Amino acid sequence: RWRRRGRCRQGGRAEEDPQPGRVWRRRGQHQAAHLGLDVAFLGLSEGVEPQGVQHRELARERLVAVLPRDHALAGRRQVRLVDLVDEAFIEFPAASPGRDQGDRAFAAVGLVRRVAFEASDTRFMLDLVRHGLGVCLLPPGVVGSGAGVQTVDVEDGPVRAQFLAWRSFNP
Question: pTM (2 decimals)?
Fold first, then answer.
């Protein structure tokens, strides 16, 4: 039988936090435990694991390209990063886990993309895409069917690992 003991402080996905770089990364270490959080969901680049906390990987998913509905690539079933490199990108802030996923993927294929806008809220990112101001890479579940944008699979796109993390110390 489960009993409630005290309070549990939880954290949301890093990409949706108002200041994801400050909350989830400080000097290269994930700091959920040092911020007084008891549990957190972290979306990190493939191959990166949370440090300083206990964790369990929950899922992995390849990010999709999010395009305006009238974009030239919107009708395709699949694209490659080279097809997107000349686009204006809407990205998460520099040094955040969400930004790291795209940075690593483009670097792995020897490409550099132009980031036109930075935003820490996925709804705002989707609004910018919907208005034709750029494209972005997001997990498919974040986009939703009523977002007014088109998603396209990215063959060599970044893979995001979703973790549940908790403090090692449990009184």
Answer: 0.76
